[in-house]
Write a structure and sequence with these properties.
The protein is 48% helix and 12% strand. The chain has helices at 3-11, 15-27, 86-115, 118-121, 125-130, 199-206, 212-221, 230-239, 243-247, 264-298, 301-317, 322-329, 333-342; strands at residues 38-40, 44-47, 55-58, 61-66, 71-79, 141-147, 182-185, 253-255, 260-262. The protein is elongated and about 110 Å long.
């Protein structure tokens, strides 16, 4: 599992964000699933392999939803890269959950049957043989595949898409038992108003990951970005591939009564300004090097000096200090004074 998938897995262990994801994806933001109904659940399964030992599989995030009437199992699979076998993987996880429930149910039934008189516990021989009573029921499983990668999803979205039916001259395709996958692609969405936690700001930021100007506008215009939690800031920094923001996060923190909040608007403004200066400095150095190289190759050292003077003038006009100009342009103070005097 990559760093992006790991950070999203940890991010969604919050019951508030987990419930918000399901409510946004399944119910268009209606508050059907409440955080207080959720309980942490074991994410490890054993998958049976023919002729081999059991293979252990781990779901990204799974929780039990207890309404007081029924129990449901909710799960999220995080994907930062396209997996062309994802419908099968989701089905395999769901089947493993049902198998786990069924095995537990059989053990419980046989234990109760031993404690009571078997003829009273089992209604018939068929129940006793399979270990499941007619009225027994399993808890339904609901899985969301959350794709937060950059590329458009071009993989299958159900088991049907993974099948080779040929020309289907015998018309068998219509009888195929399909298994759909609940796929949510962040990069394909137009509106995140259905989300009520900081998932909204995270998803909005992901849609701007390849356009820093749009990202800057988002941070400036969205008031919520001025007071984000550390968990959201960390997730943004990893998914946007901006480690420097996370390294310098304490420069943008302000404390409330019970928690720390981070101003991503200020962080983005300072980061982009630093990148602008670095880009300008790099361009200046490259320009000087190019000018010197061209001057030396043609024997026109004076041309390189004129190039340096032009660079110094540009830096003076942009407010660079003499010390910075000397370091970047690799000149001395006399040349700076010469340029300053020439263009007064």
């Amino acid at each position: 599992m990559g760093e992006a998938d790991l950070i999203m897995r940890d991010y969604l262990t919050s019951k508030e964000r987990f419930a918000d994801l399901f409510n946004g994806v399944l119910f268009e933001g209606k508050q059907v699933i409440r955080p207080e109904q959720l309980q942490d659940a074991d994410t490890i399964y054993r998958i049976e392999n023919i002729g081999a030992k059991h293979t252990q599989r781990t779901r990204d995030v799974k929780m039990k939803m207890d309404t007081g009437v029924v129990l449901r199992m909710l799960a999220v699979e995080n994907q930062n890269h396209i997996d062309y076998a994802m419908p099968f993987r989701c089905m395999e996880y769901d089947v493993a959950e049902y198998r786990k429930q069924l095995q537990s149910l059989k053990r419980q039934n046989r234990l109760l049957a031993r404690q009571q008189k078997p003829l009273k516990f089992w209604n018939n021989a068929a129940e006793r043989l399979c270990g499941v009573r007619k009225e027994d029921r399993l808890s339904p499983v609901y899985t969301i595949c959350l794709y937060h990668g950059e590329r458009p999803w071009d993989g299958p979205v159900n088991l049907h898409d993974m099948m080779e039916f040929g020309k289907d001259t015998d018309d068998m395709r219509q009888f195929f038992a399909d298994y759909p996958m609940r796929l949510y692609c962040v990069n394909e969405q137009k509106d995140f108003a259905y989300f009520h936690t900081e998932l909204r700001e995270l998803f909005l930021a992901l849609q701007c990951r390849n356009n820093k100007e749009n990202l800057k506008c988002l941070m400036y215009q969205n008031e919520a970005c001025r007071s984000l939690s550390s968990e959201t800031v960390e997730a943004m920094c990893v998914l946007l591939k901006m480690p420097k923001l996370w390294e310098n996060r304490m420069n943008y923190v302000h404390k409330t009564e019970d928690k720390e909040e981070f101003d991503m608007c200020k962080a983005m403004r300072e980061l982009l300004e630093e990148e602008r200066k670095n880009g300008l400095s790099q361009g200046i150095v490259q320009g000087i090097a190019q000018g010197v190289t061209q001057g030396r190759s043609s024997g026109k050292v004076e041309g390189a000096k004129n190039k340096t003077r032009t660079v110094i003038q540009n830096m003076l006009e942009r407010g660079f200090s003499d010390e910075d100009i000397c370091a970047i342009a690799e000149c001395d103070l006399n040349m700076i004074e010469e340029v300053r005097g020439r263009f007064k």
